[in-house]
Design a protein that fits this description.
alpha+beta, eleven-stranded mixed sheet, 28 helices, 21 strands, about 45% helix, G3P_DH_FAD-dep, oxidoreductase, calcium, transit peptide, DAO_C_sf
Length: about 725
């Protein structure tokens, strides 16, 4: 315990204060000492804890049985996002009997739709300094402490990321430099790496896509980056391993209450729950209930008290994913002042490039949809910072999503309209504990504060917090070179092995053991779900062990395919459903239902609709006469009978003539992307609309356009040369 207290004290010491007290050599030694203390605190914390399910997680059915049959839990957490999972992990490691229910999947809401950064908030620090706001300053300091802890406890899922701030005016260079240096100073001993200034030449060398005109130089600072949905899942699974009863797809219908014999008031004593999958209802009794439902905070508060005022002010943040070649592999970009005053990040993530976010008021919904205006706003801002040589096209948006940030007002504040910049913990008259607001990065400290308040208010007997330095699911056994063992021991492709190591950490071997033999010389095992991504079929089976219940769970949160490329996810779905259907004994009706639900998710929530509508929204054909003639000629090479449309039969015939073979189902999907009226054929007007959209940049990588162009070129090369044109011959 002394180690943990020492760790907590030293974590709050600023680097500037330390540097003042000691010389440079002493400072280096001091930092080593603090890291040693942190490691000892972690060892001490973990040594005290028992892990009932260290080898095998209990099944979802076993978890539901525990929820149903346990006479009374100490704590029932409602909400399976980062904060809810953090509360469950904090509670169970304090030796409290803990339950958690989530009406959808773990991390299905805001926690999987973030900017993927673990950060203190550069812009918050700027506001703190400009407005002399101590609360804002302490919020940044706390977040930087939590950033360091999160990078430590889940090294497989997170890593430091350098972020470049380009400067286009000389006077801004010292201004931004001072601000970023202050960010380092506030981080103190937990500064990831020191920030530095770059010349124009060096900045362009590191970020060649950057706009050169008027560039003065750049400043590079460091923050953390993570796989948010997998991180959320790691927290929840860690809680399960320590003995918490957790269940996704379990919704709260109403809160249970009983009269307190001392005060005579009604007190919350649990919840009536329903298994969303089977419809079965049951009671979960608990000494206290924690409301950690994010944007849905007010819905549960009103279950407790219909008169409760709303405290959540939801704000939508849209992100887009574009190909990885738009950014360097290991360098992000920050636009500190967009045209409307917002901040835009432009970051490499999972071999793609993520850009966002917007910040607009919205209504609370379980299925937020990215708007076309927001997508185009992000694209415009990105274009402002990239070289004119780099054409950022609307058609390059591979996926887009909207996340709802649950900004809150403090219910105990006299001014109920003032938005709380941090998080709030409140306890109702009936004992319902609500944790709302805050940031992804600070989930752990929010959980600690929530449990401290809960234990005090409900007089629970509990140990002190043990989550500082507590390694999460997969962290044990992970090393930066773990992927090499996966390649050597199992015969996996290097890219697949690296992906498994960075996703599952030390548990990657469990996934590799489940992988099927490919029947090829190399790789020996590991059949990919889609060719261009390193996700393999055994991950679907392992996802079920991680409580995946639907195909959406697999494409969105166990793998991140739906967030990276909606078309690739759509292609992988039939095989995913087939694997899950066999393992979970789904009927054909259930399999069809799952496929349709997943495609609806991709269409609405992951931006497939916006992507596919780029053709329909450009009904005006913007082609000159020469281009129209050229594309009609190409079309008629496939439409030999001049029907005015082509089908899979027409395309297959042409492909066979040039010895190209494509699976019939794949060919149907290719035509379906362009078949606007969904009548099973592509008309000449639809083809011209496609080519017009390609010309404008609204559509890129159209498989039909590329296929028809390639086939035409091959056919033209095969046409016999006429005697007249060749000069006659002998």
């Amino acid at each position: 315990m002394a180690f943990r207290r020492a760790l907590k004290r030293t974590a709050l010491v600023g680097g500037g204060a330390v540097a003042t007290a000691f010389g440079l050599s002493q400072l280096i030694e001091y930092r080593k000492t603090q890291r040693g203390l942190a490691r000892l605190a972690q060892v001490a914390a973990e040594a005290e804890l028992k892990v009932p399910f260290i080898d095998e997680l209990p099944s979802r059915q076993a978890q539901l049985a525990a929820l149903t049959n346990t006479e009374e839990f100490d704590v029932l957490v409602v909400g399976g996002g980062a904060t809810g999972a953090g509360c469950a992990l904090d509670a169970v490691t304090r030796n409290l009997k803990t339950a958690l229910v989530e009406r959808s999947d773990f991390s299905s809401g805001t926690s999987s739709r973030s900017t993927k950064l673990i950060h203190g908030g550069v812009r918050y620090l700027q506001k703190a300094i400009m407005k002399l706001d101590y609360e804002q300053y302490m919020m940044v300091k706390e977040a930087l402490h939590e950033r360091a802890n999160l990078l430590e406890i889940a090294p497989h899922l997170s890593a430091p990321l350098p972020i470049m701030l380009p400067v286009y005016k000389w006077w801004q260079l010292p201004y931004y430099w001072a601000g970023i240096k202050m960010y380092d100073l506030v981080a103190g001993i937990q500064c990831l790496k020191s920030s530095y200034v770059l010349s124009k030449t060096k900045a362009l060398e590191l970020f060649p896509m950057l706009k050169k005109d008027k560039l003065v130089g750049a400043i590079v600072y460091y923050d953390g980056q993570h796989n948010d949905a997998r991180m959320n899942l790691a927290i929840a699974l860690s809680a399960a391993r320590y003995g918490a009863a957790i269940a996704n797809y379990t919704e709260v219908i109403h809160l249970l209450k009983k009269k307190d014999p001392q005060s005579g008031r009604e007190k919350v004593c649990g919840a009536r729950c329903r298994d969303v999958i089977t419809g079965q209802e049951f009671d979960v009794r608990a000494k206290c209930v924690i409301n950690a439902t994010g944007p849905f905070t007010d819905a549960l508060r009103k279950m407790d008290n219909q008169e409760a005022s709303n405290i959540c002010q939801p704000s939508a943040g849209v992100h887009i994913v574009i190909p990885g070649y738009y950014s360097p592999d290991n360098m992000g970009l920050l636009d500190p002042a967009t045209s409307d005053g917002r901040v835009i990040f432009f970051l490499p993530w999972e071999n793609m490039t993520i850009a966002g976010t917007t910040d607009t008021p919205t209504s609370v919904t379980a299925h937020p949809i990215p708007g076309e205006d927001d997508i185009n706003f992000i694209l415009r801002e990105v274009r402002n910072y990239l070289s004119p040589d780099v054409e950022v096209r609307r058609g390059d948006v591979l996926a887009a999503w909207s996340g709802i940030r649950p900004l809150v007002t403090d219910p105990s504040s006299k001014d109920t309209q003032s938005i709380c910049r941090n998080h709030i913990v409140s306890i109702s008259d009936s004992g319902l504990v609500t944790i709302a607001g805050g940031k992804w990065t600070t989930y752990r400290s929010m959980a600690e504060e929530t449990l401290d308040a809960t234990i005090k208010a409900h007089r629970l007997s509990a140990d002190s917090c043990k989550t500082v330095g507590l390694m999460l699911e997969g962290a044990k056994g992970w090393t930066p070179t773990l992927y090499i063992r996966l390649v050597q021991d199992y015969g996996l492709e290097k890219e697949v092995a690296q992906h498994l190591a960075s996703t599952y950490g030390g548990r990657a071997f469990d996934v590799a053991k489940m992988a099927q033999v490919t029947g090829q010389r190399w790789p020996i095992v590991g059949k990919r779900l889609v060719s261009e991504f390193p996700y393999i079929e055994s991950e679907v089976l392992y996802a079920i062990k991680e409580y995946a219940c639907t195909a959406i769970d697999v494409i969105a949160r166990r793998t991140r395919l739906g967030f990276l490329n909606v078309q690739a996810a759509d292609e992988a779905l039939p095989r995913i459903v087939q694997i899950m259907g066999k393992e979970l004994d789904w009927s054909q009706e259930k399999r069809t239902e799952e496929l349709e639900a997943a495609r609806k998710f991709l269409y609405h929530e992951m931006g497939y609709r916006s992507r596919s509508e780029q053709i329909t929204k450009t009904s005006e054909i913007n082609l000159d006469n020469h281009e129209v003639a050229r594309y009609k000629k190409r079309f008629h090479k496939f439409d030999k009978e001049s029907k005015g449309f082509i089908t899979t039969v027409d395309v297959q015939r042409v492909l066979q003539s040039i010895n190209v073979h494509i699976d019939e189902n794949a060919l149907h999907e290719i035509l379906n992307e362009v078949d606007l009226n969904k009548n099973g054929q592509v008309e000449i007007d639809e083809f011209l609309q496609l080519m017009s959209a390609v010309k404008k940049g609204h559509v890129s990588d159209s498989r039909l356009a590329i296929l028809m162009k390639t086939a035409e070129e091959t056919l033209d090369q095969r046409e016999p040369v006429s005697v007249d044109r060749s000069g006659g011959g002998v």
